[in-house]
């Protein structure tokens, strides 16, 4: 008996649970506001669950934060599955059930489902081509979400470092070597060398993105973690690096479905680590295994303090618009003007008849806001918001936004409220 193509597709969709049977479909009010999902690294509550079903929050917490972090959250990467497993065999890590946003993102992972249920995709401060300076220092020295005496009440920098060595997301945030960087990031080391006569010479060595992998390997070759009375080696993980490189290649070929509108908001105007230097002419690096104890010095570029603007705007996708907003990497999510842009793009809430995204001069920070930023030791280099308007007939997809010439207008609003079109 012949079966039509339409019937085959319908059966396949039901089998994949992409749609429900007609009698099970529920009415959805088209006037409801859209759901805004904001995923991010370290942005989820995590719980450790033992064999008896007892759960303890391990991220984020204050009391005994470092102890719970080391005993429950430290993990190892399994290259055969691509999963990270807790070092404690009796513990599993889960996201609380009330975090529906993460479950929704997981369900939307297959491309057919994504295209069917997602209308708008808005990237905010996303490191499309990596965050070179931040990740290099994190890989070698660890990172801390708090500074000063407050670190005593949170997770130590070194405890965080031991977790991130086995974190696939961190390897994926390494600078993309195939991207055409305007100023390529380097890892620089002051080294002491001896010639054939035994004379000592101090020189600055620079390593490209590919060459720096060898430095990571040598620096972390003796890295270990003490767990349950024993010592476990925790070197630079080449398995995760290979996994991350494959992920990067897949993303470079990804395209936004035709029915999905893509927007990109990226941070600007802050000094952002790009190249990293260890040692000095007076105190050169003598042993690479001691590199993790050195203080990193950065060469900065414009960005949001974590992700360079050049990386965040180079999404390589067919975008409806790209907007550069002065702001800090995490703080930009709570920026009132960014929220106003989101409402405009998503058509959420009551329409604002006075809002024109191209001529809205309220985007500039006030003098008071600038002083608040300076008090937090954040350097503001420029004050402007940049808009990139992509014509409907332009279908430019490249690794670099500036790589090809195409008819795009940039609209910048400067501090003196003048409008310039380039």
UniProtKB/TrEMBL annotation:
One of the protein's GO biological processes: lipid metabolic process
Pfam families given in the database record: LCAT
MF (Gene Ontology): O-acyltransferase activity
The protein's name in its UniProt record: Uncharacterized protein
Organism: Chenopodium quinoa
């Amino acid at each position: 008996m012949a079966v039509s193509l339409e019937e085959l597709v319908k059966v396949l969709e039901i089998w994949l649970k992409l749609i429900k049977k007609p009698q099970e479909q529920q009415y959805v009010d088209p006037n409801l506001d859209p759901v805004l999902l904001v995923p991010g690294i370290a942005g989820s509550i995590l719980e450790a669950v033992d064999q008896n079903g007892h759960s303890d929050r391990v991220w984020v917490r204050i009391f005994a934060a470092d102890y719970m972090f080391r005993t429950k959250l430290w993990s190892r990467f399994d290259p055969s599955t691509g999963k990270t497993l807790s070092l404690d065999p009796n513990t599993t890590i889960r996201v609380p059930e009330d975090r529906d946003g993460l479950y929704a993102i997981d369900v939307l992972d297959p491309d057919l489902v994504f295209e069917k249920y997602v209308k708008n995709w808005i990237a905010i401060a996303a490191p499309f081509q990596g965050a070179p300076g931040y990740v290099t220092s994190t890989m070698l020295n660890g990172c801390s979400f708090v500074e000063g005496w407050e670190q005593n009440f949170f997770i130590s920098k070194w405890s965080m470092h031991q977790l991130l060595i086995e974190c696939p997301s961190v390897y994926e945030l390494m600078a993309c070597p195939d991207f055409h960087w305007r100023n390529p990031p380097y890892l620089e080391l002051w080294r002491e060398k001896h010639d054939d006569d035994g004379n000592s010479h101090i020189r600055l060595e620079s390593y490209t993105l590919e060459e720096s992998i060898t430095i990571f390997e040598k620096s972390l070759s003796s890295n270990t973690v003490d767990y349950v009375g024993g010592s476990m080696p925790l070197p630079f993980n080449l398995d995760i690096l290979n996994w991350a490189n494959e992920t990067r290649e897949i993303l470079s070929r990804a395209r936004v479905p035709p029915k999905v509108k893509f927007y990109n908001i990226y941070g600007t105007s802050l000094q952002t680590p790009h190249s990293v230097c260890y040692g000095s002419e007076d105190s050169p690096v003598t042993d690479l295994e001691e590199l993790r104890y050195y203080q990193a010095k950065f060469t900065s570029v414009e960005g949001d303090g974590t992700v360079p603007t050049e990386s965040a705007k180079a999404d390589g996708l067919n975008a409806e618009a790209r907007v550069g907003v002065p702001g800090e990497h995490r703080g930009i999510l709570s920026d009132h003007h960014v929220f106003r842009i989101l409402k405009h793009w998503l058509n959420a809430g009551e329409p604002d008849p006075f809002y024109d995204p191209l001529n809205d001069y309220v985007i500039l920070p006030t003098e008071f806001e600038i002083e608040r930023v300076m008090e937090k030791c954040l350097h503001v280099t420029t004050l402007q918001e940049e808009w990139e308007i992509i014509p409907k007939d332009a279908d430019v997809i490249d690794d670099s936004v500036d790589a090809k010439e195409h008819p795009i207008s940039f609209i910048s609003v400067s501090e003196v409220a003048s409008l310039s079109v380039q």
